[in-house]
Structure formats: structure tokens, C-alpha cells
What does this fold into?
Amino acid sequence: MRLCFFLLIAGLLDAVLTHLGVAAGMVEEGNPMMKLVIEKSWSFFYIIKIFLPLFLLGLFYLRPLKGWIRTLLVSTCVLYLSVLVYHMVWIALYFNSAS
It folds into this structure.
């Protein structure tokens, strides 16, 4: 359950940082599918980033995540953690270059 909440918070943080970075011209969206979504609407981008983890939370209540599904969830959390580290790196590089 905590992994699901981490995924929700990490997704929201990723969405906000991506929005700030893209809007300021500091970075570009690396995921081609999400890049298309952003080109259509930032609102739709946020809906996707919020809905998918909430959907996973709903599935957790219906059927606890075990076995290979739990392995996929842990892998997704590790991936999101690496994305958040990447965000921290470009933010630090941006502020270092602005000084």
C-alpha cells in the first residue's frame, strides 16, 4: 500500500517538476507519448499522472498486490525514484549555471 502512495506522490512531483522545466525551457519531455499529451494539453497530462496511480490504489483494495505484480510495482517505484533524481540533477545544474 505504501508503494502505491509513493507512486502517487512521485507521479505528482514528476508532473509538477516536468511542467516547470518544460515551461521554463530548461528541459524537454523525454517520453515521446507524454510529449504528445503535453502538446495537446497540460490538463490531460496531469489527469494521466494522477489517474494511473489512483487506479492502481483502487486495484490494491480489490486485490492485494502479490507475486510478479508486486515486483512490477517495486520496479515502477524504483524507476520513478530515478526520474526524481534526474529532476534534482537538472534543477541543481540550472541553478549552478544561473549563478
